[in-house]
Amino acid sequence: MKAPDKQPRKKSWWRKIRKVLLWMMILQLGYIVITRWVKPPITITQIVSLAEGNGLKRDYIDFDEMGTPAKLAVLASEDQLFPDHNGFDIKAIKKAIQFNQKHPSRQRGASTISQQTAKNVFLWQHGGFFRKGLEVYFTFMIEKIWNKKRILETYLNVAEMGKGVFGIQAAAKTYFGRDAKDLTKAQAAMIAACLPNPQKYTVKPLSRYVAGRSVIILRQMNNLESDPEIMKLIR
Question: Mean pLDDT throughout 217-228?
C-alpha cells in the first residue's frame, strides 16, 4: 500500500499559517492607524491591574485638557529630547548598556516616551528580547503614523501612575482632588517622579524616592521652560 503523501499537508498548513500572519499584520496596522485618532479602549497592563485586584482608575482627556505643568513634568522626568529624536535616544541606550554591564544588579533603562507609549498601548510590561523587538517595531510605526503631540497625549492617558491609577487625569483626581489642567508644577513633578515604578514609588503616601526625585524634576522643568521646541510642543 502506498504511504500517504505528507507534502500536500505541509503545504496546506503553511498556507494557513501565512494567512493567519497576514491577517495579524493587517489588524495590528489597522489598530495603529485607528489609535492615531481614537483613544485606546484598554491596554494589557490595565487588564492585568483588574485581574490582580488593583482596580482601574482612568479618565482619558484631550491634550488641551492636560495643562502645561503635567506635560512639562513628564518630559523633564522621562525624555527631555522627545521633540528631537525619531523614537530612540541612541546616546542614552549606549550609556545604559555600559552602566548595566558594570552594575548587573542595578539595571538602568533608556526608553523614550515613544517607546513607553508603544509598550503601554500595544504590548505588556516586563518581558525579554522578544517584547523589546516588538517594542522597536511599534515605536517606529507610531513615530511614522502618529505625531509627537499624539504620542505624548496617549502616554499621559495610559501610563500607570499608581496602583490601579492610569493617566494624568486619574492621578490628579486621586492624589490632589483636582483636574490635570489645574495641577501645580510641584504636584505634576510628584506624579512624574513615580513613573519608573508607580506601584513602589507612591505619591500618597509620599514615598522618600518621590519626595527627592520630584525636587530634581521641578528644577529640570524650570530649565526646560526656556526651550522653544518643548514649549511649542506642549502648548
Answer: 96
